[in-house]
From TrEMBL:
InterPro entries: Pep_tRNA_hydro_II_dom_sf (IPR023476), PTH2 (IPR002833), PTRHD1 (IPR042237). It comes from the Eukaryota. This is peptidyl-tRNA hydrolase. Its EC number is 3.1.1.29. It catalyses: an N-acyl-L-alpha-aminoacyl-tRNA + H2O = an N-acyl-L-amino acid + a tRNA + H(+).
Amino acid sequence: MSNVIVQYVLLRSDLMKELGWSIGALVAQACHASTAVLHLYKEDENTIKYLRDLENMHKVVLEVPNEESLKKVAEKLKENSIDHKLWIEQPENIPTCLALKPYSKDEVKKYVGKFKLYKDTLNI
């Protein structure tokens, strides 16, 4: 069993590919979700451990294809009491990404394991 504590961030790839968002806007969404969930669960034991060693934080950014997929993941996490924050960009009210609070890899891999690492999806 892995004791490595990781924070997973799931980000919609269609925001760039189909809706024309910039890479900077995507990075901002991931930062918003990550910061928010760390604040919401700042008293959690795993969050405290994760933030205790800032030089060695493990964060994994995964790609989800669209809003529907993101909402399905959020619902599955909620059903299974996996703490997370679904980031909804305002004022547009667009769900853009979600971040899990820090967990051991083994504890959450069944919820995030099917998603691939986020890669630049533009053909430049």
